[in-house]
Amino acid sequence: MVAPLFIGSESLAELAALLARPAVGQVIVVTDDNTQRLCYPLLRPYLPAKHSVVVLPAGEEFKTLSSCELVWNELTTERADRFAVVVNLGGGVITDLGGFSAALYKRGIRFMQVPTTLLAQVDASVGGKTGVDYQGFKNHIGVFQEPAGVFIDPQFLQTLDPRQLKSGYAEIVKHWLIADADAFATGRHIGLFVEDWTPIIRASVKTKEAIVAQDPLESGLRKILNFGHTVGHALESYLLTQPSREILHGEAVAAGMICESWLSVQKGLLSPEELDKIETFLFSIYEKVPFVSLETEAIADFARQDKKNAGTTINCTLLEAIGRAVYDQPITVQDVADSLRYYQKI
Ligand SMILES: NC(=O)c1ccc[n+]([C@@H]2O[C@H](COP(=O)([O-])OP(=O)(O)OC[C@H]3O[C@@H](n4cnc5c(N)ncnc54)[C@H](O)[C@@H]3O)[C@@H](O)[C@H]2O)c1
Ligand SMILES: O=C(O)C(=O)C[C@@H](O)[C@H](O)[C@H](O)COP(=O)(O)O
Ligand SMILES: [Zn+2]
Predict the structure, then answer these.
(1) Which terminus of the chain faces fewer neighbouring Cβ atoms within 10 Å, N or C?
(2) What is the pLDDT of residue 189?
(3) Domains defined along the chain, listed by start
(4) What is the dihedral sign for C-alpha 211, 65, 136, 114?
(5) CA–CA distance, 88 with 306 (Å, rounded to integer)
(6) pLDDT of res. 78
(7) CA distance 174 to 313
(8) How far is the CA of 229 from the centre of ligand 1 (A)?
């Protein structure tokens, strides 16, 4: 079942109405130290007077089981029962981690997603994937669990750093590349200079919801939402092991989409002309992620743990055309390394 979803300035009022229902017990807000400072003051008027707040340190490196323990500690201290509701206020790290923590506490309590980054508004808060990183692998431990509601208010984006905005934009571009050729054709001429993100968020969420509704547990079609992630997650996981070489999820996905578009051409699926359009557009927005040739094998090796794999086969999502993706395309670790070498040289 797809979760009820509200987009726009009225969405927090919808959340308030749901939280005011008699069937709601304790309300526990999960934030990080940035969203507590910048977003919680905007959310607070919509919360019941009595609620508690868990503040986690911000950043992907804290998307761990230890952070979940902090959430479970608070829930336990508050004696939260099965009527309790967790409200996740933050970017994708908080919506993934808070959702996962709620899904496991007392075998599952309800949670609401209040995404505050562009990335979380168009992607992470939608579709019920929750989880944490483990042993350096992205989202290695997690469950599919739909939230009780998703409340997307673009006003939160006003305090978002431009680099974070760009990172989220990569998932919007991904939705265009896998399912909406017209939006790519129009959107690529507009870029990031957008006054009101609402219609773009609405369209992007609609694309994702339509795919998730057909295959919520990712047994087939949903894998197209993972375009750019076989290589992107490998790059992100590798750089997370490297002190002071921070990469954002969307930046890694943007690089991954170039690599996987190149692989699509190598496999005879995509035309070189379309690859050129994709590359030119993505490089007009994203700087090249720096790594040296010696690192390509180590990065590629992370793809062995991709969740779409079957045994030793790495199943990648590739493009047949802009706007049309095809999943379960077998590739090798060597292919991943070659695509990274291509990315590095162009
Ligand atoms: N579940 C899914 O389907 C899904 C989809 C895409 C990505 N993800 C996951 O999402 C994560 C990335 O999410 P993200 O890019 O939102 O990162 P994030 O949660 O780390 O947020 C980015 C930074 O922005 C800050 N921030 C958040 N909202 C803010 C605001 N309104 N104003 C100012 N600062 C704000 C945060 O504190 C953080 O420092 C990754 O872990 C990725 O794996 C999950
Ligand atoms: O919702 C999905 O399905 C996605 O693949 C969306 C991705 O953008 C997102 O990064 C997701 O968390 C990746 O999932 P994973 O299963 O590869 O960890
Ligand atoms: Zn992603």
Answers:
(1) N
(2) 82
(3) 5-159 (3.40.50.1970), 162-345 (1.20.1090.10)
(4) positive
(5) 26
(6) 95
(7) 23
(8) 16
pLDDT tens track for 249-290: 999 999 999 999 999 999 999 999 999 999 999 999 999 999
Name residues contacting ligand 2 (CB within 6 A): 123, 127, 129, 138-139, 171, 218, 222, 225-226, 229, 233, 307
Pocket test of ligand 1: the residue of 54, 96, 230 to mutate, having most ligand atoms within 8 Å of its CB, is: 96
Asked whether 341 and 261 are in contact (CB, 8 A), the reply is: no
- The active-site residue out of 226, 236, 307, 308 is 226
* pLDDT, tens digit, 9 for 90 and up, residues 285-319: 999 999 999 999 999 999 999 999 999 999 999 99
Q: Which residues line ligand 1 (CB under 6 A)?
A: 32, 34-35, 38-39, 58-60, 63, 90-94, 96, 116-117, 119-120, 123-124, 127, 129, 138-139, 156, 159-160, 164, 167, 171, 248-249
Which pLDDT value is given to residue 330?
A: 98
pLDDT at 227 over 90: yes
